[in-house]
Design brief:
heterodimer, A: 465 residues, alpha/beta, six-stranded parallel β-sheet, B: 102 residues
């Protein structure tokens, strides 16, 4: 059996290894080593826990069986999941962390002896507060992530669900969570503990339903942050350094990602959380829907334009992921490169359904990461490029964000696609994007619309090249 | 006057938030998706609590209600740990640099 001090030191080591795991992600070269540190940290934490309990009887076997079952399921999912489904996967994983936190809190509440927290009905006050916070945040993470998962998977409609009195109701529930936590701590009543869990599940559900599909990058990041705070809460209860460090790391990581995503849309965090975006704006754009002429072309026209270009910038968006067009796109780019055309990729911070989604898809299609650029890095290059090839993106290229203060997306950073000599726009129809506003780019003199499925069009262009 | 151990844990917590803040800002935006999956995996270190709960009973009380919640939490956390690290590894293996001389 390991002494308490020695195991505390090992937990500290695994906490440090987790910090190094995140540090490794600062560049793709060091990232694989970082991931290894993470695995090592986890192995140390689990081994030390077994050694410090020192119970290797029947219970140990049962624990191992549950561990292996979970591990096999996890490994199976990790190998099978297509890269386009990464947002759903991450949302699903968040819900599991949340639920695990809830279960650990329940176990600790029912059997505080095991955790050295006192006896049932007489749990140490500090521990009870920490436990309640961990359980409540865990429950919110769980139900919120389930809704996010259903929306991303398309089982539930991505459009915001709003009803009258939504915000007062949510505020009421949040206040009651605080009141119940207070009462729980003063009475130690187990009924209150279950009520606390029930309303926390409810609020997680209510908080996410009004948020629309394209706001999912913010939601996923936010739930990522919540799962961290839940883990930290449990870490305080268990007096475990590894959990506290990890919870704080994950919590701040998710918070930073939400901030970056909100900035990419020029919206405040509260604006996203309160939800309903897209639902109200649509009615406004319907009114002034006049028919404006657009130039549309076919694959041959597009191939001709690109063949005569010396530099091409590709702007991928969520539509590329939906059409699974990333491999076809890379083949097209390979053909272009053979005729010495310079090709680069421009990625908007909120392209796709989660932070960095497009980068993973392009990496999957064997696009080298040093050809892929972020908005700030590449935005000045559009003026010197010959062709911009917009595939599955829309709102993030809309020049109206720079010109029309009335527009709902005014002030959002956009890619300066219109500065290119010519713009090729692969799109199914002229329908407006998620924000519900028309894209002026469609009607520009130098824009050629390619109305087709993104994958089929790219394949056709490759053939004509 | 003795300092409550809680204060030490709180200090670790606050300092870790700052470490997280600076470390995460230095993560390159192209790796934000692996960042999410790896944070997912490491936050499942909550399995430590689940193991304690699962091993709490003696041989007659292995399957008391508290331990059962522990067992379930072990499986949930294990899905995340294995799934999270492996999928991160799979993603990171795809990030390649341009081949020279092409």
């Amino acid at each position: 059996m390991l002494s308490a001090n020695l195991s505390a030191i090992f937990y500290l080591i695994s906490g440090v290894l987790f910090i190094l795991a995140l540090r490794g992600l600062s560049s793709p070269e060091t990232s694989r080593q970082g991931n290894f540190f993470g695995i090592l940290g986890m192995a140390i934490a689990v081994t030390v826990t077994f050694l410090s309990i020192g119970n290797f009887s029947t219970g140990f076997v049962v624990v191992l069986i549950f561990l292996i079952i979970g591990g096999l399921i996890g490994a199976f999912i990790a190998y099978k999941i297509p890269m386009t489904a990464m947002p759903e996967l991450v949302a699903g994983f968040h819900s599991l962390v949340g639920l695990a936190a809830v279960f650990v809190a329940i176990a600790a509440f029912l059997n505080p002896y095991a955790f050295n927290l006192g006896s049932p009905g007489n749990i140490k006050l500090g521990s009870l507060i920490e436990m309640s916070i961990g359980a409540a945040v865990g429950a919110i993470t769980f139900s919120g992530s389930i809704i996010a998962f259903l929306k991303l998977q398309g089982i539930m409609s991505g459009s915001p669900i709003t009803f009258k009195g939504q915000h007062p109701l949510n505020a009421l529930i949040l206040i009651s969570i605080i009141v119940i936590t207070y009462l729980l701590c003063s009475t130690q009543s187990s009924n209150l503990f279950w009520i606390l869990l029930a309303i926390s599940f409810l609020i997680g559900f209510l908080l996410i339903i009004p948020i629309g599909g394209a706001d999912m990058p913010v939601v996923i990041s936010m739930l990522n942050s919540y799962s961290g705070w839940a883990a930290a809460g449990i870490g305080f209860t268990l007096e475990n350094t590894a959990l506290i460090i990890t919870g704080a790391l994950v919590g701040s990581s998710g918070a930073i990602l939400s901030y970056i995503m909100c900035k990419g849309m020029n919206r405040s965090f509260f604006n996203v959380i309160l939800g309903g975006f897209g639902a109200t704006e649509q009615s406004a754009s319907v009114q002034n829907k006049e028919q404006r002429p657009v130039k549309s072309g076919n694959a041959d026209d597009a191939a001709f334009l690109m063949k005569n270009a010396s530099s091409v910038i590709i702007v991928p968006g969520y539509g590329m992921a939906v059409a699974q067009a990333q491999h076809a796109l890379r083949e097209m780019v390979d053909t272009l490169k053979k005729s010495d055309i310079k090709v680069s990729y421009a990625i908007h911070p909120v392209a796709g359904r989660m932070p960095g989604h497009m980068n993973v898809l392009l990496a999957e299609a064997n696009v080298p990461y040093d050809e892929v650029f972020e908005l700030e890095e590449i935005n000045n290059d559009f003026a010197n490029a010959d062709v911009a090839f917009v595939i599955g993106a829309n709102d993030v290229t809309n020049p109206v964000a720079k010109t029309d203060p009335q527009s709902p997306i005014y002030g959002m950073p956009v890619l300066d696609v219109e500065k290119c000599k010519s713009v090729l726009f692969v799109k199914r129809s002229l329908s407006p994007g998620y924000a519900g506003i028309d894209n002026d780019l469609f009607y520009k003199e130098n824009t050629l619309m390619l109305f087709a499925d993104a994958k089929k069009m790219t394949e056709d262009i490759t053939k004509s090249l | 006057m003795e300092i409550d151990p809680f204060i030490f844990r709180l200090s670790i917590f606050i300092l870790s938030i700052f470490i997280g803040y600076y470390v995460v800002w230095s993560v390159t935006p192209s790796l934000h998706t692996p960042l999410m999956s790896v944070t997912n995996a490491i936050s499942s270190v909550i399995i430590v609590g689940a193991i304690i709960a699962g091993l709490a009973g003696n041989s007659e009380t292995i399957f008391n209600i508290s331990s059962i919640f522990g067992f379930l939490a072990i499986s949930l956390a294990a899905i995340n740990i294995f799934g999270g690290f492996l999928v991160t590894q799979r993603m990171l293996a795809m990030y390649k640099k341009k081949k020279k001389g092409k």
